[in-house]
Design brief:
Blueprint: H1 3-17, E1 24-29, H2 34-48, E2 52-59, H3 70-88, E3 92-98, H4 107-119, E4 124-127, H5 135-147, E5 168-172, E6 186-189, H6 194-203, H7 205-215, H8 227-242, H9 247-257, H10 259-262, E7 268-273, H11 282-288
Parallel strand pairs: 1-2, 1-4, 2-3, 4-5
Antiparallel strand pairs: 5-7, 6-7
Helix pairs in contact: 2-6, 3-6, 4-5, 6-8
Length: 297
């Protein structure tokens, strides 16, 4: 088959291979890069399948740096987020103008979140758990919880039409154990998109190569300076983190992918079903997470 014919066939068939009834998925973090860390690989899988994915940062990230701040840093981080979205293939990455390190679960912020979920006509909403070292993370988790159910109430934020049904709300994974650890109800293999996830986080240069190392007590000369060397340095860390398994995660993988495929999986992301949203059956989860049955060998 010549290259021209192959190109024509690809153009014709590609739309047919996309999701016939695309899902609308919104992941909500406190800062630009939160969702990339916790959902980037799965988001890229959804996007490849033709689903509509949006990342929303509730703050501008204008405090997250050791030597920059304010509007200049907020603009830099917004540009980084847009580049990350392009690398993941997702539809949109929005950052709000709430100040970094000052996020509170106020009625104003709750209404912002309700409107954003409604505007996206979300089927799935991902948020943070309200247990975390960073107050912005805790409060971002709390405000998403508070928006659950309210997204279907017509008299709340009546300027934005309510959703017809409550979405499924999921908690993205964290490492905190008290008052209880994150439960991996859904574990997604991201081997196919791990490089995209690394590329997306590589776009957040202010965080991955400057602020993050500084908070961990590393000097700047411990961070490589060349672009390829920096990405390789970042990839090593992210692959190690994404390759951390546990007994509970393995059990979830067996449930969704089958025992024979578990040993083939190298990198994962895990999600807990929140009690506040729609409670899906296993069959509905498989429909909403089609990658659970379509993992490439």
């Amino acid at each position: 088959m010549n290259k021209l014919l192959l190109l024509v066939l690809t153009m014709i068939l590609s739309p047919m291979l996309k999701a016939q009834n695309p899902l609308n998925i919104i992941a909500i973090g406190a800062h630009p890069d939160d969702c990339d860390h916790k959902f980037g690989g799965t988001a890229a899988l959804f996007a490849k399948m033709g689903h509509n994915v949006k990342f929303l940062a509730l703050t501008s990230g204008d405090a997250g740096h050791q030597s920059q701040g304010g509007g200049a840093l907020a603009n830099r981080r917004r540009a980084e987020a847009k580049q990350a979205a392009m690398r993941l293939g997702i539809a949109e990455y929005e950052t709000l103008d709430n100040h970094d390190a000052e996020l509170m679960p106020t009625l104003l912020v709750r209404h912002q979140v309700i409107r954003k979920i409604r505007e996206w006509n979300a089927d799935i909403v991902l948020g943070l758990r309200p247990y975390d070292y960073h107050p912005d993370h805790r409060n971002a988790g709390k405000v998403v919880q508070d928006a659950a159910y309210m997204v279907i109430v017509p008299n709340v934020c009546p300027d934005t039409p309510p959703l017809e049904k409550n979405p499924v709300f999921l908690y993205m994974q964290d490492r905190f154990q008290k008052p209880y650890p994150h439960t991996p109800d859904i574990v997604v293999a991201i081997d196919e998109t791990i490089e995209q996830k690394i590329d997306a986080l590589d776009a957040h240069e202010s965080q991955m190569y400057e602020w993050g190392p500084w908070t961990e007590g590393r000097s700047q000369d411990q961070v490589p300076t060349g672009k390829k060397e920096r990405r390789a340095w970042l990839a090593e860390q992210l692959k190690k983190r994404s390759g951390q398994f546990s007994e509970s995660k393995n059990e979830s993988l067996k449930k969704w992918y089958g025992t024979e495929k578990v040993n083939q999986i190298k990198y994962i992301e895990a999600f807990e079903i929140a009690e506040y949203g729609y409670q899906p059956s296993d069959e509905e989860i498989r429909r909403m997470f089609p990658m659970l049955k379509e993992m490439k060998p």
